[in-house]
Hints:
Blueprint: H1 2-14, E1 23-25, E2 33-35, E3 38-41, H2 48-54, H3 59-64, E4 79-82, E5 85-87, E6 95-99, E7 104-110, E8 115-121, E9 124-125, E10 134-143, E11 147-148, H4 151-156, E12 163-164, E13 175-179, E14 184-186, E15 197-199, E16 203-204, H5 207-216, E17 222-226, E18 230-235, E19 238-243, H6 250-263, H7 272-281, E20 287-288
Parallel strand pairs: 6-17, 9-15, 14-16
Antiparallel strand pairs: 1-8, 2-5, 3-4, 6-7, 7-8, 10-13, 10-17, 11-12, 13-14, 18-19, 19-20
Amino acid sequence: MQKFILTLIALLFISPTVYASGSFPINDPSxxxxxxxxxxxxxxxxxxxxxxxxxxxxxxxxTAANNGVDPWIPKTSTxxxxxxxxxxxDSLDNGIVINVAEMRLYYFFSTVxxxxxxxxxxxxxxxxxxxxxxxxxxxxxxxxxxxxxPRAIKSEYPDLPDDVPPGEDxxxxxxxxxxxxxxxxxxTNRPFGIGRRVSHGCIRLYPEDIKxxxxxxxxxxxxxxxxxxxxxxxxxDQVYVEIHRSGKNNEELLQIxxxxxxxxxxxxxxxxxxxxxxxxxxxxxxxVISK
Length: 291
């Protein structure tokens, strides 16, 4: 227990200097947005996929926030947005919320007298192997896991062995957090898949993120997996929206938005042209849509 507390203190006071991987205090229930966007000026040989890892964000996030910028050969001296500001999802008191539409994980936790959230970009299940939504628990934690290849993958790739030992060829990376139904949260040996649909249903983190996250999570931690391409909230008396395309067209996103507005309810507070523009953009950036 003492080791866990010391680790937690170190993460709280050291990690916030590392871009998006810090811990954000959320004691005040009016805090619905965390972080701040940054600007990066493209240097020679920069690529968006490498910058995404440098800033601890996903490939989906950096490309959505910079629509029209070539992800592989961005023009030198171009200023791009580093999307490190987020509307918080509906949280658990303490636990993990994973939004597959956003490809992002939120970990809510408490110390003796404070509440915090940490957030990480993730890779999720590819089409046909969707990461399943629902409520789960962490049932096991394993360092240097062996990958016992599932039958579905073996049938697709029959030349694979039954098991892959720990090491650089293991797609689970160095850490495994088991979920109730057999899926897991784990590292990866292909970090450029973060912010993409790349797995057979599991949730992948950058190697440097899972190394830290693994030390924080306890057995029994609740895990809520949702699929919410649109998040809404009030911050400083303004209505904000954060929209992720997630394979949906504008009409589908508008329907989701109107359903959320009616439940809040917030219809009377929004500027409809602003909402429609944000749906068209689907930049993943929190934006004001108030009248």
